[in-house]
Design goal:
Elements: H1 2-33, H2 36-58, H3 61-68, H4 75-81, H5 84-127, H6 131-137, H7 142-157, H8 164-187, H9 190-222, H10 227-286, H11 292-302
Length: 303
């Protein structure tokens, strides 16, 4: 029994001897590891504070870039900030637009007055019973005065003509020439509208291409792809296209409108010429005009 107790004590002492170095080493390592946590905390603290320092360095550059951008993006502000070539295009298109509306105002008044006078002259010709009555009542009408004067001239020159048909043919020829001249006079100025309507969009497109080219050159010089840097230049370029459309669209519409009005005016001119020819033919058949040749033939036959 005593031997067993002695053996147990020896076994316990042996185990204690084996565990004591391990515990001592663990106690020495814990203080060494404990200071490591403050060091890691101190090392992590600067890394956490470093990111706010990055915007602080780049922050002053953003307001400086914003200050360089134009703030006035109104049409006038974009015009003043545009390139000299784009400015020239814009001024030319603005002048073309003013010219378009000026031609419209002047030509519309001219055509309206001429058409109203021509309708009134046709009504008087329809009511006239003889050539002398018609010529006396329409001398002051500018639209028909040239037709009446031409017919009177031919009747005077053909006073000794033998055939009334030849007189009527010559009068028709004179009236057709006067009608063509009146149409050419009325169409004067509308060619400018056609030119503006055909070329203004392309002129505006030229200004747009030039402005966008300058914007891309600015991108390459600034070494940035930020759209805010080139957006004002692109907007100025697109303003040139807008002005081209503003000048071209009314010009095309007005040209088509005047073409229809002039065609109607020429039709009224043809109606007036037909009425004059009918009156002349009627009086020729009546023998109302003084024809010395017929008198000479009648006198010779009587003898």
């Amino acid at each position: 029994m005593a031997r067993k107790i002695r053996n147990l004590l020896l076994t316990g002492l042996l185990a204690a001897g084996l565990l004591l170095p391990t515990l001592t080493q663990a106690q020495t390592q814990v203080p060494a590891a404990a200071p490591a946590s403050p060091t890691a905390t101190e090392a992590s603290t600067p890394s956490q504070a470093t990111p706010p320092a990055i915007p602080q360095v780049a922050a002053p550059a953003a307001p400086e870039a914003i200050l360089k951008l134009p703030h006035d993006l109104s049409p006038w502000g974009m015009f003043m900030a545009a390139d000299i070539v784009v400015k020239t295009v814009m001024v030319g298109l603005a002048f073309a637009s003013v010219l378009t509306w000026t031609i419209w105002f002047a030509k519309a008044i001219e055509l309206l007055v001429a058409r109203r006078r021509m309708r009134a002259a046709i009504d008087q010709l329809n009511e006239a019973r003889s050539w002398s009555e018609a010529s006396a009542g329409l001398q002051g009408n500018n639209g028909v005065a040239a037709l009446i004067s031409a017919a009177d001239t031919e009747l005077r020159l053909s006073a000794d003509a033998l055939s009334p048909d030849g007189v009527k043919e010559r009068i028709v020829s004179r009236l057709e020439r006067i009608e063509a001249a009146a149409g050419r006079q009325m169409i004067r100025g509308t060619g400018i509208l056609a030119t503006i309507g055909a070329t203004a969009p392309f002129v505006g497109l030229f200004g747009t291409v030039w402005g966008i080219m300058n914007s891309f050159i600015g991108i390459s010089k600034s070494h940035t792809t930020n759209l805010a840097v080139v957006a004002p230049g692109i907007a100025e370029a697109l303003l040139a296209t807008a002005l081209g459309l503003v000048a071209a669209i009314p010009a095309v519409v007005m040209y088509n409108m005047f073409s229809r009005w002039i065609a109607g005016y020429r039709a009224l001119h043809a109606d007036a010429a037909a009425e004059i020819l009918r009156l002349v033919s009627r009086d020729l058949d009546r023998g109302a005009f003084n024809r010395p040749a017929e008198r000479r033939r009648s006198v010779t036959a009587a003898e």
